[in-house]
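re: ur question from yesterday

yeah so i grabbed the chain u mentioned. its 77 aa long if i counted rite. heres the sequnce exactly as i have it in my notes:
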Amino acid sequence: PTFGNGLQNLLFDQLTEEKVIQIDALIKADLEFFFPRVQVVDIQTVGDPETNTVTFSMNYKVSDTNIEDELTINFEQ
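ran it thru and got these structure tokens back, copy pasting raw so excuse formatting
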């Protein structure tokens, strides 16, 4: 229930480069803690302060499976 805890506060403030860095760090830390079998291949968090949007993209593998996938989430205010 605490996965992503804190994202809401970051996403609904005015977007700055520092906020994008905080969002990226929070997502990475939560992935490591809550999903230890997920091996991140590539991860990108891109913010656009003019439109107050954040795009999060991740390529990943799941250990001991043949699962490889990509996930993209757009956060818009």
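noticed a couple things. The chain is about 30% helix and 40% strand. also The two ends are 23 Å apart (CA to CA).
anyway ttyl
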